[in-house]
UniProtKB/TrEMBL annotation:
InterPro entries: KH_dom-like_a/b (IPR015946), OsmC/Ohr_fam (IPR003718), OsmC/Ohr_hydroprdx_reductase (IPR052924), OsmC/Ohrsf (IPR036102). It comes from the Bacteria. This is OsmC family protein. It holds the Pfam family OsmC. Residues 1-20 are annotated as: Disordered.
Length: 123
């Protein structure tokens, strides 16, 4: 990540971790939330929309049995839900257009919703 320090990661105690940092799937949700927040801020600025308050809640469902090798199936999120709470004096139609634009152009959102090749190779 350019020249930034490594981001700490941990697991809850129930999964053998020390619960001292978000786990990787929580970080993935955080990346989506951060990307959406930047998208709202940037696109609102371009559109001349003042945002009074913005919060984004994220929820994802993961089957831990599959992650732990106790069952077969999809090891990643089965679904992700982002709930956007946006307070602004802008008209409803401008806010609807802002929401559509952010959703349409979120790089992390696109990455999560599009099949992309991922190569993992030993060095």
């Amino acid at each position: 990540m350019r020249t930034f320090a490594a981001v700490p990661s941990d697991e809850p105690a129930a999964l053998g971790g020390g619960d001292q940092a978000p786990n990787p799937v929580e970080q993935l949700l955080g990346a989506l939330g951060n990307c959406l927040a930047v998208g709202y801020a940037a696109n609102a600025t371009v559109a001349g929309i003042a945002i009074d308050e913005l919060t984004i809640g994220l929820k994802g469902d993961v089957d831990l049995h599959v992650f732990l090798g106790l069952a077969e199936g999809h090891a990643g999120f089965d679904s992700i839900t982002a709930t956007v709470h946006l307070k602004s004096a802008a008209p409803a139609d401008q806010l609807a257009a802002l929401h559509e634009r952010v959703q349409a152009f979120s790089p992390v959102g696109h990455t999560l919703t599009s099949p992309i090749p991922v190569a993992i190779t030993p060095a």
